[in-house]
Specification:
mainly beta, 2 domains, four-stranded mixed β-sheet, globular
Length: 92
């Protein structure tokens, strides 16, 4: 198994939205490995993590990773219907 190396990260700001694109050296075709080429996930910034999680749960959405305090932010995850990551992030 080859080791993938991150080449660069590009952040594109569109108003209040930031799109992060990660490039790796010599990527493999899309597979189950979350760090290989292709769509890996998306992150959504929320103003209030507790409120966002309560709202999602009230709509029947399962929280795949309960929010954790990372010091400068809170981070949690839900999954789309295909199992891809949707990260929730609240910056402090």
């Amino acid at each position: 198994m080859k080791t993938l190396r991150m080449r660069e990260i590009v952040n594109i700001e569109l108003g209040d939205t930031v799109l992060e694109i990660i490039s790796v050296d010599d990527p493999n075709p899309k597979s189950g490995n979350p760090w290989e080429i292709g769509y890996r996930g998306i992150a959504l910034e929320v103003d209030d993590m507790a409120m966002a999680v309560d709202y999602l749960k009230s709509k029947g959405i399962t929280i795949a990773q309960e929010p954790v305090d990372l010091g400068n932010s809170f981070r949690g995850e839900i999954r789309d219907p295909d199992g891809l990551i949707i990260e929730l992030r609240q910056w402090k």
